Amino acid sequence: MMKFFRPILAALLFCISGLSLAQNLKPVNLIVFPGGFNWPVWVAQDKGLFTRQGLDVKVTPTPNSTFQLTGLIEGKFDIAMTAIDNLIAYREGQGAALGPDLFAFMGGDTGFLRLVTVPEVKTYADLRGKEVSVDALTTGYAFVLLDMLERNGLVKDRDYTTPAAGGVLQRFQSLMDKKHAGTLLISPFEVTAQARGFNVLGSGIDVLGKYQGLVGGARKSWAEANRDSVVGYIAAFSQAVDWLYDPANKEEAIGIFLKNQNNSTRQAAETSYGVLLSPKEGFQKKAQIDMEGVRTALLLRSKYGMPKKTLTDPTPYYDASFHTEAMKRAR
Fold it and tell me: Which of 76, 81, 94, 156 is 20 to 30 Å from 279 by CA-CA measure?
């Protein structure tokens, strides 16, 4: 009789323990731009890495940087995977709202920025007299785009115009509909675009050298009050990146990618794997931020940001103490 009840008892105990674990998880509201660059987040969810850190991470996709940053400032979201330039802009009063305690606590990537154009635009010169879309001219990667075009002889308003078309997903869709001649996309969006005959004129990293793209950011007041959650998030994210870089996990990683990118193909996932995990500009290992890359972002903001400010010191925008603690936990 006991043999009959043992499996049932084990199942009950498993359910009770699982329910208890779920009840003890700390909710974290994460807001991200949609795209394959969220691969580490997907892995951390799929492999239970967030759960092991005691976190229940709820992910919200953002339509644009304004929605993301204002929501973060207002406390609607706890953590944002966003360009460090966005955090700097809103902290310095150059964004749509003021967020004086916004800061970065970990690195993510170098931006994976690609200038993509419609099939008939094959060179920078072909963009003269055309529209090149941005998220918002005050934040994000718009300054990278302006600098790339300027270095190739094109000046905003004189040679081209810059309509706002929303976040990367919205800009990609507008480009596919040929509403604009070009835009700056984040990998792996350019993979799909190239498959449809669109052109990649250049990459941000090739033009700028070191550049810090996505980071994990939050309000300092929330982060200090929820330090364990921030440290746990960094540890889980770092472990997910380590897992992705292990060649033994490639097949499973591609499966996770396809599960989260319903409109993607196996070939696109393979290409994305090569781009997002490349030695040159792949995900930043151990979630390590590139302070020289932050300086590059500051130089661009000093050049193009309004109202004008000279920004040279990256240290106010990053608190390394969270990352240091997380690396001890992630071992």
Answer: 81
